[in-house]
Amino acid sequence: MTTFLDAVFSQPFMQHALIGGLLASVACGVAGSYVVVRRIGYIAGGIAHAVLGGMGLAYFLGRSPVAGAIVAALVAALIIGWVSIRWKKQEDTTISALWAVGMAVGVLLIARTPGYNVDLMSYLFGNILMIPRSHLNLIFWLDIGIVLLVVLFFKQLLAVSFDEEFAELRQISVNFFSLLLLCLVALTVVILIQVVGLILVIALLALPAAIAGQYVHSLSRMMLVATLLGALFTTGGLSLSYHYDLPSGATTVLLTGLAYLASSVGGSLWRWWQVRRITPS
Hints:
281 residues
């Protein structure tokens, strides 16, 4: 750990990586909690994989891949949300189509772009060690936007997440806030691409919130605990990857997954022991 701390204090790229992980944890904890309580992990995965098409198109046109990612993520979120509202039964098919087409278009456009070809692996699995200061600024402002929207519309998003019929009775625009929620998830996906890449993004988006949900039963507390867990996992994954020369994104997700499994198994054993203790022999 001392070596990792020395690197953080002495190497700017390690400082950027640590700050990027901590900033990503904020959006991860906030939006990830909604993903867990609404059980829309598959939708988040579809948005994440559709993003590669936007990144490939932006790169092909000589634009910023991150800008393309933002546009593609929001468009995919709105398409999925609109299909879910109009044709609920076709939602899975639409997600699968966006998932496959987005990945295929992205790979083809990146391959056909003249000149130096980017490393596709950095998009798929992330490369937090190479995150520039400009991307840190973008992640910071995306965090601010996500948190601000959640604070402003917390009651409406809460109602839509847990009981849409109740929300309609309270004259809350369910369709609007459902689309807004998907857009928040889409922006979070763009943030997490920098940390763990498109392939692994759903794990860091959902698992910290899923662990938090095992111990707290308030959405606001769930967001706070999930944010802290996300910060712990990204920092721990970065430290382990530095010490053992491993890919940082995959190491972070593996650490997060093991923590989720340990929490789930430990909680089950604890409940079994409690029941056994109070049950007469």
